[in-house]
Design a protein that fits this description.
Helices cover about 60% and strands about 5% of the residues. The chain has helices at about 10-15, 20-40, 40-50, 60-75, 75-100, 115-120, 125-135, 140-155, 165-190; strands at about 100-105, 105-110.
Amino acid sequence: MAEPGPLYIDFPPDVSQHPASAAFERQVIAAQLTYEFESRLPFYVEARASLPSLIVTEGPYRPLLKEARTLYTFGYYYSCVAMCGITAERIVKDIFVTNIRVMKSGKPGKPSREAEEVLESFGAKQICDFLLASGLLHKNLNKPLKDLAVLRNKYTHARQSAKDEEAARAELEKDARKAIKLLHTTVEGTVAAVKGITDPTYQHPPGPYPEDAA
């Protein structure tokens, strides 16, 4: 019989349920989590401080955007890249649903709730292409959205080019930083309430903008 390879063991979540040791085990878990958090606090602070400023209009994407930033802060890079892609897709789909109109009894109107649910099944790529072609998304967002979709697919399927653990971690961190940048470029070109805050390098098309008329 072949020797087993290295094992990963995580007992506390199960052991802590035993009546005889539950209270003590929870104290141990609390101490471990406190130590892990405090030992990495300088890293968390630097990661949080590196995030772009954010002023966005309220919408379903807001908690997703916040979660993507939180995942980056705490170094959960796989999840961060995926959430960046998910958030950008939510923003794009909301723009699509908000702007689409259907003719009914000779009058244009918003699609029904049932129709909106059907629209949710449409592919993000096709929706992006439609919005870009119709001018509802500016052409400057074409590359950021496509690059972010590539990154999301890469980590959704757990594909990394680096082989050894250290190189893979460096690649992952680099890709997470890129995903965060691409997401915030998307925010800057779509739902940013104040332009030039989230991504000052983004080239906005000529106005007027809603805040100019305020």
